[in-house]
Backbone:
């Protein structure tokens, strides 16, 4: 097990005034019991195994495959909503995490995380996320049950390798592309786990990090005493079980609160935030009718009908535009606050996360609400019941569209407010003009989202 | 010793990378083409397995052939062989087939519309070919309509589509990769404990 503890983090004063769910005896007893989180993990792992089986061996048509519906119509759209409500709690339930732990217990070598992973892990996550999104569009992974199944099997192999060789949840912390996105969204989440520094300062056991008799140390390499972000906490409860002083609290918080005073912005996190915006654009553009016109124009311009080439160009442009816009606004903001472009890029890239999350939820809300019944139909299909031309919609398109616009409006407001708070707490001068500069960028991105959501969108199933 | 361990990790990583890359190719292949290795004839009545033909009232014979021992999901290319009453191949006909799943009662109906396939002449006399995606297993019907010498005739062939079953290359590759990792990790762990 790793012994090095990252103490180079800001220690915040005690926040005794915050509600602590662990004050509830029943809740605390449950979190500390050996049933948590296993009681959730096992049924989810069984469902996951069945879904993979369906994807690999069930109907080859996404329309009829319960695995496809369960994965892309139910789980994927629900995930960002869960991240907003409960932070990375999903990561505790994730079957890949459980598999990692099992393999580690049986044959784990517990080697330290390679230095390059610690240094470049998030860049690897950024690259993997881009690669998977690209391959989905080129090979149609989501639309192909077999493709989705193979993707899950490939991830499983990588998780087994990571669990067998490296300590704790190296995969989840440094390699999981979903973990990277989840970490970003969890920064806006409404739940946080923190230690009480006043209690921790007298503690010499560090059982929360190192582990104890009751549970292993933090699987995500976090030291709760100095942890000031929810990006890597998955609420596994190990620190709650191990803490001899009941220092840990689990509290609700205002969405986006964590972003208001970010003292250690990282370029790679800001980059991921911008790339996610690009991905939402790509997802939307390729599902609306103007995509065919864009394709035709690109075919004429590039003199090729090769979809690989054309889509790659579109993909690169869609990714580059938000990044370039953030660089540009960084240059303009520099005039007011005197910070470097890179400093502005890293800091204010975080401000886009609420809009990212809103765009992600809004996009997937369409799949959840316009195709939601396909989960029931495909499930009943397993028992020989089929439905003739039955609508898969839970809500009509007009209602879904209004909900999407409301989400984008909320995300925009969240992003602008985060910008204001960040500019104010950054220590740089002229925070109001800086806020205006980024507000223009956020409004432009929001307008692009609104335009794309106003177009009719294709279904997944 | 350290070199050996590094070598082993390298080998394991190599295996995983090779398997992943091959899986990607299989992935691309799975989503692109379906190969035919063996020929068989569709059942003339639902549920009867490999029965060969359907004879219409004018005594012409229609024989539908798919890849595999039984028509399987995702089969793409199929053949139709048309013979007249004398057992002679019917050539130069315009042929189209409407594929649909057989309905069992009010609640058991496909969400798909019937698919109409226009066939092209095959390599042999009386042979016609076309593509169809048999998206689900169960009982299917093929309504065949052909026009030859200005006369249009129709017949119907019912056949079963078998579940295509798991892709054993993928599953084998997956199990193999996991097994290699587990064994390598177990050996490394044993060596580590022996050293300690």
Residues:
């Amino acid at each position: 097990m790793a012994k090095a503890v990252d103490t180079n983090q800001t220690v915040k004063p005690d926040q005794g005034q915050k509600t602590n769910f662990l004050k509830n005896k029943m809740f605390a007893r449950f979190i500390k019991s050996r049933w948590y989180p296993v009681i959730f993990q096992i049924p989810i792992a069984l469902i996951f195994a069945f879904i993979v089986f369906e994807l690999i061996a069930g109907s080859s048509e996404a329309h009829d495959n319960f695995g496809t519906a369960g994965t892309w119509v139910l789980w994927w759209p629900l995930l960002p909503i869960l991240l907003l409500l409960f932070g990375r709690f999903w990561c505790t339930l994730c079957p890949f995490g459980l598999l990692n732990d099992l393999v580690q217990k049986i044959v784990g070598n517990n080697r330290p995380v390679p230095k390059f992973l610690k240094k470049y892990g998030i860049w690897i996550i950024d690259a993997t996320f881009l690669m998977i999104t690209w391959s989905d569009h080129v090979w149609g992974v989501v639309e192909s049950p077999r493709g989705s199944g193979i993707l899950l099997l490939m991830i499983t192999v990588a998780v087994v390798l990571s669990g067998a060789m490296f300590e704790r949840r190296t995969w989840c912390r440094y390699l999981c592309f979903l973990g990277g996105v989840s970490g970003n969204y969890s920064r806006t989440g409404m739940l946080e786990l923190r230690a009480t520094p006043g209690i921790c300062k007298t503690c010499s056991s560090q059982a929360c990090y190192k582990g104890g008799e009751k549970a292993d140390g933090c699987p995500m390499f976090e030291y709760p005493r100095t942890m000031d972000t929810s990006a890597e906490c998955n609420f596994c409860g190990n620190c709650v079980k191990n803490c001899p002083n009941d220092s840990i609290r689990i509290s609700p918080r205002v969405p986006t609160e964590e972003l208001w005073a970010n003292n250690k912005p990282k370029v790679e996190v800001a980059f991921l935030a911008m790339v996610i915006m690009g991905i939402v654009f790509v997802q939307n553009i390729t599902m609306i009718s103007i995509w065919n016109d864009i394709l035709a124009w690109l075919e004429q311009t590039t003199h090729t009908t090769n979809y690989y080439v054309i889509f790659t160009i579109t993909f690169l442009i869609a990714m580059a535009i938000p990044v370039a816009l953030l660089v540009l606004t960084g240059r303009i903001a520099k005039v007011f606050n005197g910070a470097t472009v890179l400093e502005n890029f890293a800091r204010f890239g975080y401000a886009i996360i609420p809009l990212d999350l809103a765009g992600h939820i809004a996009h997937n809300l369409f799949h959840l609400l316009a195709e939601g019944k396909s989960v029931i139909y495909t499930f009943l299909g397993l028992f020989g019941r089929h439905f003739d031309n039955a609508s898969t919609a839970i809500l009509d398109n007009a209602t879904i569209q209004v909900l999407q616009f409301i989400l984008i409006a909320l995300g925009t407001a969240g992003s602008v407010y985060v910008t204001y708070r960040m500019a104010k707490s950054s220590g740089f001068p002229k925070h109001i003009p800086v806020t205006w500069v980024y507000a223009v960028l956020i409004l432009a991105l929001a307008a692009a989202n609104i335009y794309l959501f106003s177009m009719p969108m294709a279904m997944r199933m | 010793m350290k070199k050996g361990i590094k070598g082993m990790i390298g080998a394991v990583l190599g295996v995983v990378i090779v398997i992943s890359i091959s899986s990607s190719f299989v992935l691309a292949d799975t989503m692109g083409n379906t190969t035919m290795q063996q020929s068989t004839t569709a059942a003339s009545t639902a549920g009867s397995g490999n029965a060969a033909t359907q004879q219409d009232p004018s005594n012409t014979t229609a024989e539908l052939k798919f890849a595999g021992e039984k028509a399987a999901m995702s089969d793409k290319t199929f053949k139709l062989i048309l013979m007249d009453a004398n057992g002679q191949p019917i050539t130069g006909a315009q042929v189209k087939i409407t594929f649909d799943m057989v309905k069992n009662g009010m609640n058991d109906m496909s969400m798909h519309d019937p698919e109409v396939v226009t066939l092209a002449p095959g390599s042999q006399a009386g042979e016609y070919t076309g593509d169809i995606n048999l998206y689900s297993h169960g009982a299917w019907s093929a309504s065949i309509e052909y026009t030859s010498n200005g006369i249009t005739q129709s017949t119907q062939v019912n056949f079963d589509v078998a579940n295509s079953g798991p892709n054993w290359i993928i599953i084998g590759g997956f199990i193999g990769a996991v097994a290699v990792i587990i064994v390598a990790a177990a050996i490394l762990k044993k060596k580590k404990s022996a050293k300690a």
